[in-house]
Amino acid sequence: MRNLQKVLKEITELTFEIKKNYPELYQFLEENPLAIPSENNLEINKKVMQDYLESLKLLLAHHKETHSLK
């Protein structure tokens, strides 16, 4: 099982990749509601960060699928 530091490292690397290669997508990352814990779960823990990492991966994959050159 991955530890929190590894998950945070992956988030940082993926965010940097999005910023560098997909600036049109990067502008929307701050608006992603998954980045903010809900009122019921104010603790930022490994699960919250793992969920956020997965949401970033899905966001990037969807962007690549819908904006690929045809």
Automatic annotation (TrEMBL):
Name of the protein in its database record: Uncharacterized protein
Organism of provenance: Gramella jeungdoensis
